Amino acid sequence: MKGISIKDIAKQAGVSPTTVSFVLNGKAKEKRISDQVSKKILKIANKLKYKPNQLARGLRTGKTKTLGLIVEDIANNFWANVAKVVEDEADKHGYKVLYGSTEDNSEKARGLLEVLKYRQVDGYIITPTKNMEKEIELLKMVRKPVVLMDRYLPNVDSHYVVVDNYQGAFAATSHLIAQGYKKIAIITTTSDQVQMKQRMEGFAAALKKHGITFNKTIVKKLPFDLDRAGHTQEITKFLRATKVDAIFFATNYLGIYGIESIRSLGLRIGADVGMVSFDDHDLFRLHSPSITCVSQPIGEIGRQIVDVLMKELNHASNTSHHLVLSPTLEIRQSSIREENNK
Amino acid sequence: MKGISIKDIAKQAGVSPTTVSFVLNGKAKEKRISDQVSKKILKIANKLKYKPNQLARGLRTGKTKTLGLIVEDIANNFWANVAKVVEDEADKHGYKVLYGSTEDNSEKARGLLEVLKYRQVDGYIITPTKNMEKEIELLKMVRKPVVLMDRYLPNVDSHYVVVDNYQGAFAATSHLIAQGYKKIAIITTTSDQVQMKQRMEGFAAALKKHGITFNKTIVKKLPFDLDRAGHTQEITKFLRATKVDAIFFATNYLGIYGIESIRSLGLRIGADVGMVSFDDHDLFRLHSPSITCVSQPIGEIGRQIVDVLMKELNHASNTSHHLVLSPTLEIRQSSIREENNK
DNA sequence: TGTCCACACTAAAACCATTTAGTATAGGCA
DNA sequence: TGCCTATACTAAATGGTTTTAGTGTGGACA
After folding, report:
1. What is the pLDDT of residues B102-151, one digit of tens each?
2. CATH numbers and ranges of domains, chain A
3. Residue A143 with chain B: CB contacts under 8 Å
4. Residue A278 and which of A294, B135, B177, B279 are 20 to 30 A apart at CA?
5. How far is residue B295's CA from residue B252's CA, in Å, rounded to a whole number?
6. Across chain A, what does the average pLDDT equal?
7. CA A82 – C1' D8 distance (Å)?
8. Coil, helix or strand for A70?
């Protein structure tokens, strides 16, 4: 029942395990193993369908060929799609992925890092939560490659792949203004992480540019850990209290809850209240009216993340890769006034 | 930079690594290690924040505390949600999850199994593809627990957690009939796997029960590997060629493509053509009109899967667990004729 | 004939935790 | 005093691979 080991091959070939290891690791030439022996070993390995025991190898080399992927919520459309791309790309390099969701909770995140650390993953893809600076620095100290995604930590020098959140929010908000909406609110998360800040800043900058005042009354922040009912309740309450003619939702799930809330108030999206959301979603595309959104290039994000990680795994550099990809404004009906009566 | 090992603790405590191992594994009593020494070791281990090297442990014990999760498509709403629950549940038992998507492609699935095998995962959660009987049997032979999900293989005796597909499809179809729809089509996948067969059978049985003839003209099968455009093209073509007044979509993504297709034909969902889809989705809930669906109890599915797997990991039984959970028919507007004009 | 080197391999250690098979000591009992 | 047993540990093997530091042989050269 045991697996085939290098010893079995050695025995059959009448050589030592060392020789087998050399040949199987492509060091035959370098270690001057004769072609005869080389071929023989390769043949036997093939015949026995030898697969190196990753544990033993990992124990010896310290490399597990495993990546740790920490996302906010693997069940969420955006992160599930990232996970898919990461899986595919990692696979191309012979890496497998261990995943975990933080729920934007620092404790959970720390726990995940802990587990991934003592499982000796080779590299980390991290969606950082608040106050993770120390942990990231620690990983850097032990020379484990880390790529942050979706957001970065301003006080930590690390690799990251993000989108231009400022630009995305600015474009979306400018678009709303161009459509004639005047009283525009932003619904975002309580987290003061950089990506949210930037979305907020892009939003504010667009208002300012067009001479619209930006103040606290048009900002609604919601904690991540509310459930669906909690979110819709809060959003509904806000919309009742604050008369706005358009809303910018800072993430996809807020957009979804937003749709529910707006509808529960009997308002017509587009006509009565325009809306734009960050992140695309099947729901946004197919909703009536369809929802304008700031779409992130998920494929590109995933590819770049793994690309950076692989570069660092192969030969650590001392320059940080900071990739800022451009999101795309998908203009749909929810932000077009003329289309409303459809 | 090295981690703390059992040796370091042994040295500090002035005992042998063996003793440390015994104490740390809770065998102090059994191996009659004195309380003094026990406490000392525990204290030092705590102070040094000792974490056992999982590779070394795995190499010795053959247990990696890792599960392999093979889904059809981790980016799909349904599977992403399953993955989330599985992650959470596995975590409670100290297990991590390696995931992979098959795209319903047997070659990919085999590759995934191969990789998971030589990474020595302790147990498998598998969404099987066609012709995987041999691989599953092989895992059984080497005494690796396997739980199939979403579908099972009729010719293999294994654990599985599925929903009552027949009942779900039967209820959905009966509901359409009760609403007065008469010419009902089914749009499903080309795969002849058991879950699809059962959905088909439930559909056919409901028609039959109400004296509606079931024939090939009302069945449209689509291969998994079509892209979005391909799917909508095919569905549109089918709907143009075949006059129907309601459609049963056998999976969530078919339902989504179906919505697009129906709308591109200028038909009103509900009024012109009723629809029901398998699997729930935010999109279905919020679409106008909202889409009736057969909702799978994802939380329950995930919990049961991990539960069965843990039972088997702890003491393999020779009875197979066959869990068939009941889906729920979520009645919404897309299948209600009166509601159409809303 | 003796020295040196290239060649083609191999022995053994290392990675770290677990586990089997002991060992050394003290005390009880005859 | 000698034998036995319980106590409280430990040495060494094990798992499979990689890697360092060799070893033995044959031929070239002086």
Report:
1. 999 999 999 999 999 989 999 999 999 999 999 999 999 889 999 999 99
2. 6-52 (1.10.260.40), 64-163+298-324 (3.40.50.2300), 165-297+329-341 (3.40.50.2300)
3. 1
4. B279
5. 10
6. 95
7. 55
8. strand
Q: Which two tokens stand for residue A179?
A: 């459509």
Bond prior to A289 in cis (omega within 30° of 0): yes
**B2 pLDDT above the threshold of 80:** no
Q: How many CB pairs under 8 A join A and B?
A: 124
Footprint of strand D on the protein (CB under 7 A): A 2-3, 5-7, 17-18, 21-22, 24-25, 50, 52-53, 56-57, 59-61; B 14-19, 22, 31-34, 36-37, 56, 59-60
| Amino acid residing at A117 | K
Cα distance between residue B296 and residue B165, in whole Å: 10
* Dihedral, A21, A23, A24, A26 alpha carbons, nearest 10: 120
Of residues B54, B66, B283, nearest to A282 (C-beta): B283
For B222, residues 6+ apart whose C-beta sits below 8 A from its C-beta are B187, B188, B189, B190, B231, B234, B235, B254
Q: How confident is the model at residue A340 (pLDDT cuts 50, 70, 90)?
A: very low
pTM over 0.85: yes
Backbone angles phi, psi at B278, to 5 degrees: -80, 150
In 3-state terms, what secondary structure has residue A71?
strand
- The Cα B92–Cα B96 span in angstroms is 10
The H or E element spanning position B124 is strand B123-126
Q: Which of B5, B53, B54 to mutate to test the interface with A (most CBs of A within 10 A)?
A: B54
> pLDDT per residue over B200-233, tens digit each?
999 999 999 999 999 999 999 999 999 999 999 9
Taking the CA of residue B21 and the C1' sugar atom of nucleotide D12, their distance in angstroms comes to 15
Q: Look at residue B338 and tell me whether its pLDDT is greater than 70.
A: no
Q: Any alpha helices (H) in B48-132, and if so which ranges?
A: 54-61, 77-92, 106-118
Has residue B341 got a pLDDT over 50? no
pLDDT at A290 over 60: yes
pLDDT band at A3 (very low <50, low <70, confident <90, very high): confident
